[in-house]
């Protein structure tokens, strides 16, 4: 029976061989962009060490320099931000970067690695969603890895984890902005009250489902009454 370290070594040596890497990828990072119809563009970076999620090292990014749904520009920004920061802090760099996306996304990531002088020092690949094709920089022909191999399973796990982490963050942002925007026109409900409602209930749907007692305990009777009237007036609105 292999102990966890032996198992990780076996899996990662397989990854090294299958992906033709110079070194064993003990530390892998995977990036995913989440923007739904171009709103609140965010990105996620998940970190695996010894083939296992290192959840404390996961990072979310609010995309700052991009307006609208431009996945390539978003990828350029977050890859540059992530690795400029690691370089500045003298933090360990990964041996492998996985980009969730095909040739375009991969090329965007490569441009940022070139800009900060890391291209060629860290292996980088893209995984296209549909057929699980693996792309290398500058190579238009994808690599297909055995569907049942531990290598592909690990890459899929990275990609799925980055996607899940990104989507969760995206939903939180949408809920917050929806609460703010829907409550903005309500007279008598100020910034602090909105913040309290947001922190406690997380979404409009949950505010609507709150009891009078819960609302009163949180924001006082008069504001709770305003919220209750607003809820009753907006009964037919679509809930998130």
Question: How would you sum up this structure, described in words?
Answer:
This protein has 240 residues and is α+β, with helices and mostly antiparallel strands. It folds into two domains: 167 residues, UvrC, RNAse H endonuclease domain (Nucleotidyltransferase, domain 5); 50 residues, DNA polymerase, domain 1 (Orthogonal Bundle). The chain is 50% helix and 20% strand. Strands 1, 2, 3, 4, 5, 6, 7 and 8 form an eight-stranded mixed sheet that branches. Helix 1 packs across helix 4, helix 2 packs parallel to helix 3 and helix 7 crosses helix 8.
Overall, the morphology is elongated
Structural class: alpha+beta
Number of helical regions: 8
The assigned CATH architecture of the largest domain is 2-Layer Sandwich
Low-confidence stretches: 236-240
Helix percentage range: 40-55%
The CATH top-level class label of the largest domain: Alpha Beta
Descriptive key words:
2 domains; Nucleotidyltransferase, domain 5; 8 helices; 240 residues; alpha+beta; DNA polymerase, domain 1; eight-stranded mixed beta sheet
Summarize this structure briefly.
The chain is of the alpha+beta class and 240 residues long. The chain has eight helices and eight strands. The protein has helices at residues 4-18, 71-89, 103-115, 150-183, 191-201, 204-209, 212-219, 221-233; strands spanning 27-36, 39-49, 52-53, 59-62, 96-100, 123-128, 133-136, 139-144.
